[in-house]
Design brief:
Distance between the termini of chain A: 25 Å
Strand content of chain A: under 5%
Oligomer: homodimer
Number of strands of chain A: 2
CATH architecture of chain A: Orthogonal Bundle
Largest interface: A-B, 58 and 58 residues
Helix content of chain A: over 70%
Number of helices of chain A: 15
Strand order of the largest sheet of chain A: 1-2
Number of domains of chain A: 1
CATH class of chain A: Mainly Alpha
Structural class of chain A: mainly alpha
CATH superfamily of chain A: Farnesyl Diphosphate Synthase
Order of helices and strands of chain A: HHHHEEHHHHHHHHHHH
Chain lengths: 296, 296
């Protein structure tokens, strides 16, 4: 029996291996490549690719063949962090304890590194065909683009900035914004795994719902950790949300109610997994529970 | 007999019609949508989609079915203009005679509008399946991503900034940079048209080569017009390249040699079209000649 931490480390290492080579041979100018690698190699749990691979395996697909699609989610996630940190956006000097991309490479290169990672994500994903049937790859690319686009992650960042410091932000608005900003990509990672494996409509819907609930819980826990977390673990100063005038779950409903809401979401996620069995199902159940435990 | 100007206006109008509706129903927050529309509706010749459609038709494909893929090239081109104009990049206050995106909506929204257009391009393109076989759509998406990515357009912008004001920029370096910055997308638009139509390898290579030569000529002519052009027609002050310290074809080899090089490229482009007949072939030949005429 391996522990969840060992499982997570092994899964992340698989993704790291792919990430280390995914930009090779693409003719990227050296300094731009350096800036892209800087953020891509900054570590992290690689949650989105890990979810995508796990759902591909859970639904009987070839996980190795799905890797370029799974990895594309990390390229997109990384680009979003680079652009979010820009002076015109959240103006963050630090990311995971290191200087943010634009502090090292300058704003222009940071913008281009983000643009490059975003675009290369689709190049990588397209290369999953024909090992995976083209119809599935197109559908996965559509899901990624919709989730990452102006009605998803990019739109969520727009709303996040509009809501920061605004007086009339309700819990409903906050939840809808987070469903776009962080939820959409997590949801799409799970659903893409199922799509790439050729899952039927029921399994695909279960993967999608699992992603919706886990994504929501993940954000609530993130907000809770910004209040009660350990600075080293969360990679940014405790209380930085409040300092920036950001509305959070704890600021709107308190810590206890936030934890209860996260628990409810994880229970719903687990419920949607109930028809699945085997090691990939166990891994996903443990992962869902672990997200909740971090907030205790 | 219609004139080329009438043909170009009719083709651009087809693209405009598609562009006007392509972002509807995508759940984009209103202000972000406004910023995306602002740049998308700023006009222009819609050269890239027009080339893509013409090659789709030339190779016997369904042009209407190819429209979302053709239009995606304009979304990508538009995003690149928004990001290029940012203060950290070329810092342009005007674009096609109107205030640039960030002057109207602020830097943060301009960055996000660009990110949104870039991402939605792939969503639109994916939606061309199944009207067009998924294998062709995946290949077209791969071509677009590679052309627009860090080894293509984004990398070209990175090199353009590095070369601006630098002392050792040769004609070879300049040509390689432009092949990435402006050439790659024009080349991919032509090749995608052929791919979407299911063209054989020879026709696909001819479409690609036509795009390479026309793209190179287009850039040389653009540089020439920056010296001798009419401010109203080119939409920016004459001499702005020189003012910014940009190396250009005229600054490296003079106006006459620049014109000769453009002519040589157009001759090569026409040569690659020699096996094609019919109205689409005539349109492309006229278009290629027209690009050259602008520099006289």
């Amino acid at each position: 029996m391996t522990t969840l931490k060992e499982d997570l480390a092994r899964e992340a290492a698989r993704v790291e291996f792919w990430l280390a080579g995914c930009l090779d041979g693409r003719g990227i100018p050296p300094r731009l490549r350096e800036a892209m690698d800087y953020s891509l190699r900054a570590g992290g749990k690689r949650l989105r690719p890990v979810l995508c691979l796990a759902f591909a395996g859970l639904c009987g697909g070839d996980e190795e063949a799905a890797m370029p699609c799974a990895g594309a989610f990390e390229l997109i996630h990384t680009y979003s962090l680079i652009h979010d940190d820009l002076p015109a956006m959240d103006d963050d000097d630090l990311r995971r304890g290191k200087p943010s991309n634009h502090k090292v490479f300058g704003e222009a290169t940071a913008i281009l590194a983000g643009d490059g990672l975003l675009t290369e994500a689709f190049a990588c994903m397209a290369e999953a065909a024909p090992a995976i049937p083209a119809g599935r790859v197109v559908e996965a690319m559509r899901l990624l683009a919709v989730a990452a686009g102006a009605g998803g992650m990019v739109g969520g960042q727009d709303l996040d900035m509009a809501y920061t410091g605004a007086p009339d932000v309700t819990l409903e608005k906050l939840a809808a914004m987070h469903a776009m900003k962080t939820g959409a990509l997590i949801r799409a990672a799970c659903e893409c795994g199922a799509v790439l494996a050729g899952a039927d409509d029921d399994r695909r819907a279960r993967a999608r719902d699992f992603g919706i609930h886990v994504g929501a819980a993940f954000q609530i826990v993130d907000d809770v950790l910004d209040v009660v977390g350990d600075e080293k673990e969360i990679g940014k100063p405790v209380g930085s949300d409040q300092e920036m005038g950001k509305h959070t779950y704890p600021s709107l409903v308190g810590l206890d109610e936030s934890r209860r809401m996260a628990g409810e979401r994880i229970a719903m996620a687990l419920d949607r997994l109930s028809v699945f069995e085997g090691p990939r199902a166990d891994f996903l159940r443990n992962l869902a529970r672990y997200i909740l435990e971090r907030a205790q």
